[in-house]
Amino acid sequence: xxxxxxxxxxxxxxxxxxxxxxxxxxxxxxxxxxxxxxxxxxxxxxxxxxxxxxxxxxxxxxxxxxxxxxxxxxxxxxxxxxxxxxxxxxxxxxxxxxxxxxxxxxxxxxxxxxxxxxxxxxxxxxxxxxxxxxxxxxxxxxxxxxxxxxxxxxxxxxxxxxxxxxxx
Length: 168
Known about the structure:
Blueprint: H1 3-8, H2 12-21, H3 46-55, E1 60-66, E2 69-75, H4 87-102, E3 111-112, E4 116-122, H5 125-139, H6 143-149, H7 155-158
Antiparallel strand pairs: 1-2, 2-4, 3-4
Helix pairs in contact: 5-6
């Protein structure tokens, strides 16, 4: 094998990853705030959507279908170290998620931060999009818009939850 061959060879593992990440056609940055209809459906292509968002240094949001129900995902880590999620946002989002679980709008296996939020068992695609858009606004610091876009989340701007609030 010539020394030049080693420079152009890509291990199979990396070839699979690069083919997979290229399958998200023209993933554009989401507007802030993001309308419900633009929330990406990452069903079957979560990794591609996540890495595309990370490359844009933006907050990742997406929904995924799981059988008859939907999962909401929001992650501020993809925005990079310069993106700060304020403590008030974490407290508000945690309280909202606890409330959604208690009201049985989401499953009890929710993830409540501090920078990654996930709800399983959301009953409809429309509701999943609405919640995801609200979380997106909140992670960019717009708690007021978050509360307006998703009425159950009015809790975010009106109530300070107890410190020991838990999902279970």
